[in-house]
């Protein structure tokens, strides 16, 4: 059991460092008592009115002033966590905040774990699990598109869609179960076609939601593109052209890209990490060899490899050697230095190609569009953010519904059909955390920041 009833937690909610305002947040049954103590007030002093800002001085146990500022009291259940919450908004002084934190602990609070406020919000039903995850995604957003998508999920856009399908699954299950005690003849074709129709509708809606969730998850996670190719074909130049600034050192001397150079670009709001490899070739140089082994590891996690080749020199044995060692990830041959040639050289058979000039800028828009497509992003104006965990739960749900459809069509016993639908509903319910999520909570909330 992660949650202990009766525990009052405390954390500094504002980011570390100096700032205009620093906020200490308490949540739990003793929150008000501890806040009163911090303000030099007795436990039996009148309770503070709900959600009113009061200017107060904050003291240590020795009666010495630590800071002054504003107190806010949010009585349960109308607070972020669903428990009694008090905020002390003082100056953004790391030492004053640390002192207040220490005093709170002395008065009986416990330092909160990462994400513990949001975890409590989930456990008290203030947020469902997908919404709680959206809180973290909003905090960690690196682009405006990510902010918008996470905000939509936080408002419940994703959860609502999940709940709607969940409701339909339960309805269909009830329909199937209602037929359990009757024979085929008794039920007639109306029942059969209602089940048939229900299953079909479910499949369509699941497919749609899955597509949205996949894009939402990609947007939240960002993508990764590898630039591979022999030295001097223009990998660094391409990286710079896409990043539109001089991040990589571009020089005509082969082998200057010693290690993995990473650059994050935003494609339509989707953060994409571009990784310029060490050239992926054997090297006597130790530093470079290290770069090569790291490159190979990272290759596996990319969605797309751009194999850059030189249109001026044409396809060479070394290009082929690199092509032959690429892992089986989507790839595209980029004929760079298009500006130097009037016609493109012959590419290896069955390989998709795109001609560009990193120097002049030709073909970059087409390349960006191609990258987006490989990321599975129709556009980055995603309806909501999601996570891989959600995509997998939707895949499990879809699989169970497909199973049910198969049973329905092969006239399997309705008990089996009902069982598949029940399993589908359970898989779906994991997204919002309706059931069976105890063992993933630690993993989800530990990735939050302290104080959220
Ligand atoms: P890398 O070793 O693959 O990273 O290649 P670089 O980006 O360092 O480029 C090698 C050389 O090719 C440099 O002199 C670049 O200026 C030149 N270069 C890169 N892209 C182009 C291009 O599109 N057209 C022309 N003409 N030269 C290019
Ligand atoms: Zn049917």
Structure overview:
The chain has helices at 31-38, 94-106, 116-123, 129-139, 144-154, 157-178, 184-221, 235-243, 286-299, 317-325, 364-374, 388-409, 414-432, 438-445, and strands at residues 9-12, 19-27, 54-59, 65-74, 85-92, 110-111, 223-228, 261-267, 270-276, 304-310, 331-336, 353-355. By secondary structure, the protein is an alpha/beta fold. The chain has three domains: 9-127, Gyrase A, domain 2 (2-Layer Sandwich), CATH 3.30.1360.120; 134-219 and 385-433, tRNA modification GTPase MnmE domain 2 (Four Helix Bundle (Hemerythrin (Met), subunit A), Up-down Bundle), CATH 1.20.120.430; 223-374, Rossmann fold. The strands form two sheets. It has a six-stranded mixed sheet with strand order 3-4-5-2-1-6, with helices on one face. It has a six-stranded mixed sheet with strand order 8-9-7-10-11-12, sandwiched between helices. A hairpin with a 6-residue loop joins β1 and β2 (19-27). α4 packs antiparallel against α5, α7 packs antiparallel against α12 and α12 (388-409) runs antiparallel to α13. The protein is flat, with a radius of gyration of 29 Å. The two termini are 20 Å apart. The relative contact order is 0.13. The mean pLDDT is 89. Bound molecules: guanosine-5'-diphosphate and zinc ion (ZN).
**CATH architecture term of the largest domain:** 3-Layer(aba) Sandwich
Q: How much of the polypeptide forms β-strand, as a percent range?
A: 15-25%
Cα distance, first to last residue?
Answer: 20 Å
Mean pLDDT score: 89
Family: Belongs to the TRAFAC class TrmE-Era-EngA-EngB-Septin-like GTPase superfamily. TrmE GTPase family.
EC number: 3.6.-.-
Function: Exhibits a very high intrinsic GTPase hydrolysis rate. Involved in the addition of a carboxymethylaminomethyl (cmnm) group at the wobble position (U34) of certain tRNAs, forming tRNA-cmnm(5)s(2)U34.
GO molecular function: GTP binding; GTPase activity; metal ion binding
């Amino acid at each position: 059991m992660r949650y202990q009833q009766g525990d009052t937690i405390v954390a500094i909610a504002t980011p570390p460092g100096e700032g205009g305002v620093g906020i200490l947040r308490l949540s739990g049954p003793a929150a008000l008592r501890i806040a009163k103590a911090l303000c030099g007030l007795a436990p039996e002093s009148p309770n503070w009115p709900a959600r009113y800002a009061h200017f107060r001085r904050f003291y240590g146990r020795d009666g010495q002033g630590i800071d002054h500022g504003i107190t806010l009291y949010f009585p349960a259940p109308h607070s972020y966590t669903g428990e009694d919450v008090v905020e002390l908004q003082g100056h953004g002084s790391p030492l004053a905040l640390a002192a207040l934190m220490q005093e709170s602990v002395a008065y009986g609070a416990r330092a909160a774990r990462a994400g513990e406020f949001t975890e409590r919000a989930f456990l008290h039903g203030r947020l469902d699990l997908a919404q709680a995850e959206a809180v973290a995604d909003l905090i960690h957003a690196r682009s405006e598109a990510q902010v918008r998508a996470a905000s939509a999920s936080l408002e419940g856009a994703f959860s609502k869609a999940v709940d709607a399908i969940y409701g339909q699954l339960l309805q269909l299950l009830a329909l199937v179960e209602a037929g359990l005690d009757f024979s085929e003849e008794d039920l007639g074709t109306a029942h059969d076609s209602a089940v048939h129709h229900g299953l079909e509708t479910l499949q369509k809606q699941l497919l749609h939601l899955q597509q949205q969730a996949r894009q939402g998850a990609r947007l939240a996670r960002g993508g990764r593109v590898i630039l591979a190719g022999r030295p001097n074909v223009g990998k660094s130049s391409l990286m710079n052209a896409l990043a539109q600034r001089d991040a990589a050192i571009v020089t005509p001397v082969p082998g200057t890209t010693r290690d993995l150079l990473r650059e994050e670009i935003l494609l339509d709001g989707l953060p994409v990490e571009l990784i310029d490899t060490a050239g992926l070739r054997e090297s006597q140089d130790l530093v470079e060899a290290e770069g090569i082994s790291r490159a190979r590891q990272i290759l596996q996690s990319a969605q797309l490899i751009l194999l850059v080749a030189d249109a001026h020199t044409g396809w060479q044995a070394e290009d082929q050697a690199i092509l032959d060692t690429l892992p089986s990830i989507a790839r595209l041959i980029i004929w760079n230095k298009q500006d130097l040639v009037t016609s493109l050289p012959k590419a290896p058979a069955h390989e998709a190609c795109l001609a560009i000039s990193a120097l002049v800028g030709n073909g970059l828009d087409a390349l960006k569009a191609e990258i987006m497509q490989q990321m599975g992003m129709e556009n980055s104006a995603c309806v909501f953010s999601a996570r891989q965990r959600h995509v997998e739960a939707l895949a499990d749900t879809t699989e169970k519904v497909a199973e049910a459809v198969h049973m329905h069509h092969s006239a399997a016993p309705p008990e089996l059909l009902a069982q598949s639908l029940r399993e589908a509903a359970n898989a779906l319910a994991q997204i919002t955390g309706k059931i069976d999520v105890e063992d993933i909570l630690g993993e989800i909330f530990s990735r939050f920041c302290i104080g959220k």
